[in-house]
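Much of our argument rests on the idea that a fold can be written as discrete symbols. In the encoding step, the backbone of a single protein was reduced to a row of integers, each denoting a local shape. We regard such an encoding as a compact summary of how the chain folds. The record that follows shows the chain in one-letter code together with its fold in token form:
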Amino acid sequence: MTVETRRGSSKHLDGELLTRTSWVNARTAYKQVVKGKVDGNKCALWVRTHIQRYLYKIGCFIHLHCGKVLFVGLLLLSLCCIGLKTAQLETNVEKLWVEEGGRLQEELEYTLKTVGEGSGITNELVIQTPKLGSNILTQESLKQHLEALIRVSKIEVQLYGITWKMTDLCYVANFPVFDTPYIQNLLEVILPCVIITPLDCFWEGAKVLGPENSLNTLSSLPGLKWINLNPLKLIQNLNNDYADANILEDILIRAGISSAYQEKPCLDPTDPDCPSTAPNKISKEIPDIGAEITGGCYGFATKFMHWHEDLVVGGVRKNKTGHIVKAEALQSIVQLMGETQLYEFHASTTKVVSIDWTQDKAKVVLQAWQRKFTQVLNGFTNDSMPDNVYAFSGTSLLDIMKEFSNVSIPRVALGYVLMLLYACISLLRWNNAVQSQSGIGIAGVLLVALSVAAGLGICAVLGITFNASTTQIIPFLALGLGVDDMFLIAHTYAENAKNKHIAFKEQTGECLKRTGTSVLLTSVSNMLAFFSGAIIPIPALRAFSIQAGILILFNLISVLLIYPAICSLDLYRRENKRVDVFCCFQSYADSNVVIELQPHGHSISQHAPVERETSPPSYSPPPSYSPPSYSELLARDTIAQSTADGNHISTTLAPTEGQFCTRMDSLSTGCPSTSSSRQCLTPDDDITCKDHISRAQRECLTTTMSTLAAKYYGPFLQKTYVKVFTVIFFVVIVIVASWGTGQVKDGLDLTDVVPRGTSEYKFLEAQAKYFGFYNMRLVTKDLDYPNNQRLLREYHQAFQGVEQIVKDDNGALLNTFWLDLFRAWLTELQEAFDEEYKNGKITTDGWKQYNTSDKAVFAYKLLVQTGNVDNPTNKEQITRVRLVSEDGIIYPPAFYNYLTAWVSNDAFAYDSSMADLHPFKNYWYHNKNDYDILIPKAQPLMYAVIPFYLTGLSSNEKILSVVIKIRSLCDSFSERGLPNYPSGVPFTYWEQYIKLRFYLMLALLCILVVTFLVLSLVMMNPWLAAVVVVVLGMILLELFGFMGLMGLKLSAIPAVILVMTVGIGVEFTVHISVGFVSAIGSRNKRMLMSLEHTSAPVIHGAISTLLGIIMLVGAEFDFIVRYFFNVLAFLVLIGLLNGLLLLPVLLSIVGPNGEVQPKNNADRIPTPSPDPSPKPKPKKLRPVRTTRSSRRLYPKIPSDISLTTISEEPSQYSSSHEIIVQPEVVVETTTVPTEGGAAGGRSRSGSSGGSSCSSRNSSPHASEVSIPTATHVTRVTATATVKVEVHTPLPGSVSDHEHRHKSKKRKVKELVDSSSGSNSDSDSSSRR
């Protein structure tokens, strides 16, 4: 097969084959091991051989069809980008951070299935802090707080053509339905919104309740508002006119509603509306605000509305008597209905008749009002006010998360532009516009960017939702990792382009063959690492891991299949001498070159045949001969020097120790432009200072990272004291990092994800500092409530020991437990019944209509209930059963009948309990005049709530400890047969931290194990894999310790960064490790060679990753700067330190053996024998008639005999310019045994790419050798001395130059033929 090769020296490539055999050609290394010439890892070489073979074929195919491959690849990637249209951004924290398949997800799903979405109430918070000083308990501050709440009560939004006020949305205490329209209308208008505020300690709290318009409809009580309303007195005045007034009066008394605000002190006793019943109305004294707030405040219903002081004031300082003397913050809570309640409330009103009222519209209305609430209050404070007022609503967190998750297009674009600039500058060759690689650098970055977009498009099509980690990390991470591999291929492509021995059509194949293994290793390791990270059952982490793995796959496909096509197109540009980037311009810089000798290492052989994968054979007629051009002759390995007399210039072929490079004449400033070439070739003694400056400039422009690593950094690391210092340095780092890991706390402060300086940030900061207030609900489910009342009461009392739960003044739990309220109501009815029954007003048959109380009649109806659907009532049992037993157990058989009556008729107490019982569909309203005694039975409860308030949770540690403690209590009762679970913000958002460390450690362990297995299987070197995994583990430890030292907390997003640390660390370690095991020599030498060839791509990758994240510095979210930029930047730093300092030192000390190990610890393998000629097919053999005797052809067998060459001293001619060539003829034959000893063998010899001729026409003559039974063909070496005189052509003498070149070719051919013929005759005579 004819292989196209480039004319020129092959020394550079040969040197790499001999010293980095498995890197250049694993097949050659494998054969050497099989033959026993060298030792090595046969399995690793066998795997590498097959990988390189396929990569080589792929590269050759891409080069042949580069335009088509590029077009199809870009088209497919662009089509994948269309999938971005279906991308969904998830900002719901519950769906992002709740463990998939965990107990919290099961609990949330159960709640959603039972009560529906949007149930319950929402709290809108207002916090006020002083601008100056530290005490906010002043009259002026409380007046400002009052003004802020009044402003809230007047907020309106326009939606669907309807004006929505706070009274339309707020949570209002529920009362039973009355038959008297006047009473019912009165309650609907006068019942206020529930607002928890410190103003309820004063009369001014009534101003917030309204109503906005006075009750002028009541002619007897005009201008009625809460500021002048005495509810109990009002109802008592109506007793004589309305029958239901007595029932309402009883409800008010039981709820603690009496004089409301009329007997509370006035903040401003000079206010004309201050009632005369106020304690300080007459004295006009300002009340002691601290003393009034001590113990908390009471709303208009004192029995159910006790606001503990921890809810309304913060930063409290008390005196010795326990009275508050100072506070630093005030807090009010406006309670609104949830979207479900809002929908159900207005579904039966005339307000929404004109629109298609749905729960979704209710949600929109609620969120619109909440946003306006925060907007109004955050803009409320002005310079004249003494305090700052901040607001936070239910939608504030959602808006923050949405804003946090949005992609900053300018920031991403600027980051990519910086990456483009770096790729352009780092691959630019200032001194050679043709050899520059800026174009492929820019194209590579754009290709990776397109690949990232395509991968995200596929993720969107697969239904993987985007979140904050996707939008803030993925674009930069994927770009950095993809560009790393791009730089490695570009670096190898530049090295191969300098090697004139590699055929033009094989350049891309050779590039992929050498770099493909490293790219595959890093990419596959990264993919499997990220996919392993999906074992963390947190949706945000799982989505990130899967998306990152898919993007790595897309980057791998793009870098291995599409980017080589770009490199192939760039090869055509180079061949055509086109300027980099500006391909329309052609460069003529190479027309005038200076040949400069640079010494090689002495260990490199002059003859090292190169074994490469060959393209499929193509049969074509031999190319026509064309003489070399003058520039080609000058570009050969020659030395131009002056003769002894100084009158002539002699150009001779360089010795084998040298290597030549070309440089631009513009850099040769040592010789003036007007000087002749003879002046430039004067001895070194005449070098001037200007020449030294020019040389220094030239060396500066030609210095690269690879040369720095080979000349300075690598030898520096080889020193013993440097290794000792490095090991000690990293031991210290590990100790410090281990201490730092102990300082990492769990949790995520909301202030971290809110931009600093905003009102939301200041609110969250104050709320965490002064209050730490959260709602909590205990949910019981699927319980036999009638027969487990005692267990349920024990369950409630068990939380008495939780310090953070708000309690009353006596230290007891607040009276909000629905079962307690239910039992108290029944007990009150039982007492009324006992008294009436004793007095004879009630008998077994019934009650007397006129003199029996409503409570006694109600109790009678309850006592006759049996709970049996077949026999629902029994009047005979009224004296045998009691509604509540002496030990506090509600009569179990009729429990659900009683429950229906309680929920329907004691609605205020039921609403205050916030029990939210489900399912509950039957309502029954008591009427004394109704003799129907059957009370419908409620359905068995599946869902019941016990509410609590948590306070003092100012830090993540406190929140997490409370969550764990409450979870432990709940679990203990679940084991006792009471299924239950806690609910609320702390349990939704902090639940993840309970098992986060376990899942994180499990994921990291899996990732490290997967990385170890991949490296072990591909490299067949567990030792190397273990060293790499150890370094990756150290990177993880150092990064985790850094987080502790910087005060960063462990949450889901830092966990994502720790997961991807292994992926980024692989880029810093695998390239160095592969370069180490593929080199030949001692550990120190292999470490040096690895750094020389891989340090530049590693550094470029690190810088590119750093540039990818540099734009995060300008993010408005402090969380992005602290947790993304700082952590990722430190990761790049420690990755470089471990990859380029620790890893090389470890490899030089305890590194594994190389894949190829020459005998006697040599630094290179023996010169490999060329491949044997292909065995001819017997059917196609035809007798050949020649002028010589006919010869039989035998298949060639590789020989182990080394070849040597002999060169004679050249002579010089007296021409003005001559080239003395020292040719060599390498003839290799094979030893072929013949049966019977009669047949003589004639061999066909194969020559290396560097051989000038072969012995396919004849065998050399050799001395006769006696053999017993077989004849062997021996191998001999023939040499020839050729003298060729080539004169420098004068301008216009091209024909003369061509004539001399042809003459040279004829002389070489004739001399070789004559030498080969003589040796062949000698060999023939020996066989006779």
User: Anything to note?
Assistant: The radius of gyration is 46 Å. The chain has four domains: 11-86+406-585+994-1161, 121-403, 786-988, 1169-1328. The longest helix spans residues 539-575. Residues 44 and 1019 are 5 Å apart (CA to CA).
